[in-house]
Automatic annotation (TrEMBL):
InterPro entries: ENaC (IPR001873). GO terms for molecular function: ligand-gated sodium channel activity. This is Uncharacterized protein. Keywords: Ion channel, Ion transport, Membrane, Sodium, Sodium channel, Sodium transport, Transmembrane, Transmembrane helix, Transport. The chain crosses the membrane at residues 65-85, 434-457.
Length: 478
């Protein structure tokens, strides 16, 4: 750095000229010496500048890293929430109501024991044979061995027939034909009060065959209104008693008496339970062999039914949240169709199956499915009937009553109380909830990274301004 000095001259100019020139020379020499002595340390300044640049670079990298991590976490949590939202999670609300009218449930009774073994063997002697071990058969089924055991014959179903357990495929087929040819009215349960029974055939997976079932108050192809059960109020009672007050909470809707064939004439000797009962919604069929309760002869059963109603979500939405799925109309109808008929594969050319289809559906299977689609409504699966079954032995007084009870099953069906449990599933996240959730995530992560975000924006903005100035300067030169 150069230093300049001003010198003032006073007195005789000639005399002072000699003095002034000598002093000026001395002053310039002193100034140069001082400049040489005060020269700054260039190496130390460059080291400080490089350290400052390195610190600024590290700080910039740290800011960028924090910002990138925050943005990545924001997008990750947003994607996770979007996936959760698409699964349509719901919140379950439970409410108990006490209506005066309740929908009467449907009753379905299936009976395996409708093929008379003796009659079948008389008509189809070539498909029956004597048991291969009559002593063991009599030990397991003593009722079969009453009378002359040398004349006992059983169908070739692989049970105590042939050494290898031979099963003649035609035996089962003929048994199905025998079942379809008998009058279904003969197997109607005797009911008090009397109601109209509808006959259908349900496939039994355990027996690998169809069984005849009778359903009451089942509305699949009919236009009839659903039946209601009415509960009386206390004001309607003339003389309230303990029994009448108890009846306000429990209503007996039906009493069934199911006549059974003698056990020794049973076509399927190995079947422990021949009758199955199911209580279900009047608009949704049920397979009693899969979802019902087995009944035994000689017992009285008290069935207590309770109703619950489910408010499903809108159709067409996939509700995988918490294990629930709302079916589409076609899927619902197809499910009803399969539950209703349990048909065999179209490729199987079985006469019994074709006959079963003739009895089960009003026309072909495709047309029946079309009917299901037309009859399907959104509330098909809303009604759920839960029931418990109590088994007890009857009080028998005479030998005739005892012999009657051996071939009879009595069922009393009650609606336990008038309370209805209403279960509704509401969406856990609506449109505003989703907006609030995403906005909260954005505010959280951007709030954490705002200090890094603003620093990056300012630095990039200043750098952009410098580039613009350089560009304009170059443009002005040219």
């Amino acid at each position: 750095m150069k230093k300049y000095f001003a010198v003032k001259h006073v007195g005789n100019p000639t005399h002072g000229a000699m003095k002034r020139s000598g002093k000026a020379e001395n002053t310039v020499i002193a100034s140069l010496e001082n400049n040489l002595e005060e020269k700054p340390p260039i190496v130390e300044d460059e080291t400080a500048n490089s350290r400052a640049q390195f610190v600024r670079f590290i700080w910039k990298c740290l800011k960028s890293l924090v910002f990138v991590v925050c943005v990545a976490l924001f997008f990750q949590q947003t994607a996770e929430f979007y996936i959760l939202y698409k699964t349509y999670p719901t919140a379950t609300n439970i409410m108990v109501t006490y209506p005066k009218f309740l929908k009467t449930p449907a009753i379905t009774v299936c009976n395996r024991n409708l093929i008379n073994k003796t009659e079948f063997c008389v008509l189809n002697a070539e498909y029956c044979m004597k048991p291969r071990n009559i002593e063991r058969l009599c030990e397991r089924h003593p009722n079969v061995c009453m009378g002359n055991i040398s004349e006992i014959t059983i169908p070739m179903l692989g049970y105590h027939t042939m050494e290898s357990g031979y099963l003649n495929p035609y035996t089962r087929r003929l048994g199905q034909e025998f079942l379809f040819d008998t009058d279904p009215k003969k197997s109607y349960p005797f009911e008090t009060p009397w109601r109209k029974w509808k006959t259908n055939y349900v496939y039994d997976m355990n027996m690998n065959s169809h069984a005849r079932c009778h359903s009451e108050n089942l509305h699949i192809f009919s236009e009839e209104e659903l039946q209601n059960t009415t509960f009386r109020s206390v004001a309607e009672l003339d003389y309230p008693t303990s029994n009448s007050l108890y009846e306000l909470q429990m209503v007996k809707i039906s009493t069934l008496k199911i006549k059974m064939m003698d056990e020794k004439e049973s076509f399927y000797l190995w079947a422990d339970s021949q009758v199955y009962l199911s209580i279900h919604s009047p608009v949704v069929p049920s397979n009693p062999f899969m979802h019902g309760k087995p009944l035994r002869t000689g017992y009285i059963y008290d069935v207590y039914v309770r109703l619950s109603r489910f408010a499903l979500a809108a159709l067409g939405l996939v509700t995988r949240g918490r294990g629930r799925r709302t079916p589409s109309p076609f899927a619902l109808s197809h499910k009803l169709h399969r539950l209703r008929f349990h048909l065999e594969d179209e490729q199987q050319d079985w006469t019994s199956v074709s006959r079963a289809r003739y009895h089960i559906v009003p026309d072909t299977s495709k047309e029946a499915l079309h009917l299901c689609l037309k009859k399907c409504k959104e509330n098909c699966l809303k009604l759920k009937f839960h029931y418990t079954v109590d088994e007890r032995t009857p009080e028998v007084y005479t030998p005739s009553e005892l012999s009657t009870m051996r071939t009879e099953i009595k069922v009393n069906i009650f609606i336990q109380d008038r309370s209805v449990t209403v279960v509704s599933h509401k969406p856990l996240y609506g449109n505003w909830e989703m907006f609030s959730y995403v906005g909260g995530l954005m505010g959280c992560w951007l709030g954490i990274s705002v200090w890094a975000f603003i620093g990056i924006i300012e630095r990039n903005y200043s750098r952009a301004l410098q580039l613009m100035k350089k560009f304009r300067a170059k443009k002005a030169k040219f």
